[in-house]
Amino acid sequence: MTKAIFPGSFDPITNGHAEVVEAAARMFEKLYVVIMTNTSKKYLFDEKERLDLAKKVFENDKNIEVIARPAELTVEVAHELNAGAIVRGLRNTTDFNYERDIAGINKTLDPKLNTVLLFTRPEDSFISSSMIKETVFFGGNVSTLVPKPVAAALEEKLRNQNNEEK
Q1: 40 catalytic, yes or no?
Q2: Is 107 marked as binding a ligand?
Q3: So what CATH class is 3-125?
């Protein structure tokens, strides 16, 4: 069975992420969406919330499993799951340069583990989790940029934060 992992912080999952997951799920018999930690990011959703949201987004996909591995190296997660590939999504050349460097580190750690890069659609190439959070923070509507469960969770999170500030 060909297995792959799609690691990320997914704070929150965007339509671009979902698009890459769906494309990868057609390429591999089993795809693990792995909720991980990026130490350089400030999170809006905690690990459990990110895990639950991802599970909701992909609940109808039989060959996709969502798991959390917040304190492990990507290569170690791939080994643990017997995955032969790491899937990463690209929006632009900035992403390419970043992902090339990560793929190089991963290849150094495990020369047999490959990275598969998938491009998002041009209409999704500007979407980033950071921009989504910023837009929501200032009251913008992102419902066309994220899956429905994510849009609802963002609205609720914003409402709760606004209530706490009052």
Answers
A1: no
A2: no
A3: alpha beta
> Would the annotation count 9 as a binding residue?
yes
Cα–Cα distance measured from residue 77 to residue 3, given in angstroms and rounded to the nearest whole number: 12
pLDDT per position as a tens digit, 53-87? 999 999 999 999 999 999 999 999 999 999 999 99
Cβ-proximal residues to 7 (8 Å cutoff; 6+ apart), any chain: 34, 36, 69, 74, 77, 86
* Joined tokens for residue 78: 């791939």
Confirm whether 26 is a catalytic residue. Answer: no
The pTM for the full model equals 0.92
129 included as an active-site residue: yes
Element (H, E) at 9: none
Give the rounded percent of residues in the chain with a pLDDT score beyond 90.
80
CA distance 158 to 156: 5
Q: Do residues 146 and 44 lie in contact, with contact meaning Cβ atoms separated by under 8 Å? A: no
Alpha helices in 37-143 (DSSP H): 47-57, 74-80, 93-109, 129-137
Q: Where are the domains of the chain?
A: 3-125
